[in-house]
Amino acid sequence: MNKYETIADLLKQRIRQNLYPVGSFLPSQSELASEFDVSRMTINKAINILTMEGFVSPQRGFGTKILNRPFWNNDVSPVDQYNGLTSEMARYHRDVESKIINFDVAFPDSDEQAHLSLTAQQPIYRIIRLRLVNKEPYILEHTIMPVDLIPNLTDEILHHSIYAYLQDELGLQIAGAYRNIQAVKPDALDLQYLNCKPDDPVLEVAQMVYLKNGQPFEYSHSRNRYDKRSFTELSLRK
Amino acid sequence: MNKYETIADLLKQRIRQNLYPVGSFLPSQSELASEFDVSRMTINKAINILTMEGFVSPQRGFGTKILNRPFWNNDVSPVDQYNGLTSEMARYHRDVESKIINFDVAFPDSDEQAHLSLTAQQPIYRIIRLRLVNKEPYILEHTIMPVDLIPNLTDEILHHSIYAYLQDELGLQIAGAYRNIQAVKPDALDLQYLNCKPDDPVLEVAQMVYLKNGQPFEYSHSRNRYDKRSFTELSLRK
DNA sequence: CAGTGGTCTAGACCACTTC
DNA sequence: AAGTGGTCTAGACCACTGT
């Protein structure tokens, strides 16, 4: 672990333990540098992390104030999450099951080619999975992935976590994702599998996920039951 | 302007101009350091910005690859936006009007006290505004703000931009915001003012906005017409 | 004014990738 | 082995805040 991440974690811990109470100020960067026996740049980097995560607000010439961390409850999924539902829910000790609605291979249409940077000759998987949490339907996921990147996708994997397979078995490194979130009306599949009523809204999250080498490898639309999922986000002035 | 921000902007410009084509690699950090006559740390900081904004993906021991930024033609993602609707829409040359549905002062209930860190004796504004873009209803905003932070709120201000008033007139500095996004069913006010049908979904964004000194100053729920607004977001592996 | 955080440097070592 | 990005240092200067 890096020094600055280690120190950031330690500072967070102190804040949570009220060793640095909300509303008070952190020791100055120079003091912290002496305490941890590192250069001030390293402390600065650590405090940057705390700032990005909303723990503190530094004001130049003044000090670094400990903020009151919002009490949005954690049962909502952070928007900046792309570990897949399985690991997300594991944190709350909930069972995730996947029911495969559709799984086949096809050539991409032009829209899919554009989104995944593919030629018309590179086949894709077309997957529709229903994700159940504690036996209740949560999400209907429409996923498209290029076959050549993920050679041996099986029913077995689809029943568990695609992401775990990608990262642990194939060693693919995810760089990030683009998402678009909107409210939509339910379609026939939603009615059938999410078990929602015609006037229930659906929260649709479209996302493209990228590998570190820049290759997009997943283009998906997840349709979430409106009473089961919401998304939280923290955004900060640059 | 800082050196690292200046350099980051310049690099972005080169990427957009295809001087560094998508799929190719940036010059190494040492080369860039010589070119701009700065230390490598400064280049590193600049490239960090590009990484956070999804322009490039550095891989240690290898190089920094220029990514394809898909339908991301505009500079800022609406999700990490807290400048208010007025400035957001101004970029697209659209008219924003505000119709005041409700504007009064009251003592906060316990929920409001908690969210805004107030006592029962500190009054708040309760504001409901309908935001119209090019004469069409887009958003119904329910906003709560402490009176003592924003002393002289007038109809005049509410008809334009609250945010512009806060920042330009009062000099309040916004640190960031927490948001929660979900799909909901329309309520009576939505039907009346957003002009939506009973089975139209509504995209609800609840947010708390914080000042740099840590004081929360706005707690709001905006209810967006589902066919008019969606939210985009870029998220990256740490 | 003294103290704070923000930036920047010149150089160093390390982890990693490709050859 | 050579080259890359990631981290870290010791010190410096600056912009800003409080008094």
What is the name of the CATH class of the largest domain in chain A? Answer: Alpha Beta
Say which CATH homologous superfamily of the largest domain in chain A is assigned.
Chorismate lyase-like
Shape of chain A: elongated
Structural class of chain A: alpha+beta
Which regions of chain A have little confidence, pLDDT < 50, spanning 5+ residues?
A: 73-77
CATH architecture of the largest domain in chain A: 3-Layer(aba) Sandwich
Number of domains of chain A: 2
Sheet with the most strands: spatial strand order of chain A: 4-5-6-9-8-7
Multimerization status? homodimer
SSE ordering of chain A? HHHEEEHEHEEHHEHEEE
Q: What's the gyration radius of chain A in Å?
A: 22 Å
Report the largest inter-chain contact.
A-B, 55 and 53 residues
| Secondary structure: number of strands of chain A | 10
Keywords (chains A, B): DNA-binding, Repressor, Transcription, Transcription regulation
Organism (chains A, B): Lapidilactobacillus concavus DSM 17758
GO molecular function, one term (chains A, B): DNA-binding transcription factor activity
Protein name (chains A, B): HTH gntR-type domain-containing protein
Would you write up a description of this structure?
- The structure is a homodimer of 238-residue chains.
- Chain A has 238 residues and is α+β, with helices and mostly antiparallel strands.
- The first copy, chain A, has two domains: 3-66, Winged helix-like DNA-binding domain superfamily/Winged helix DNA-binding domain (Arc Repressor Mutant, subunit A, Orthogonal Bundle); 77-232, Chorismate lyase, CATH 3.40.1410.
- Helix content of chain A is 29%, strand content 33%.
- Chain A has helices at residues 3-16, 29-36, 40-52, 84-90, 110-116, 155-159, 162-169, 188-194, and strands at 56-59, 63-66, 77-78, 96-106, 124-133, 136-146, 174-184, 202-211, 216-225, 231-236.
- In chain A, a hairpin with a 4-residue loop joins β8 (202-211) and β9.
- In chain A, α1 packs across α3 (40-52) and α2 (29-36) packs across α3 (40-52).
- Chain A is elongated, with a radius of gyration of 22 Å.
- The two termini of chain A are 26 Å apart.
- β10 of chain A pairs antiparallel with β6 of chain B.
- Chain A binds a DNA duplex (19 and 19 nucleotides) through residues 2-4, 28-30, 38-42, 44-45, 47, 58-64.
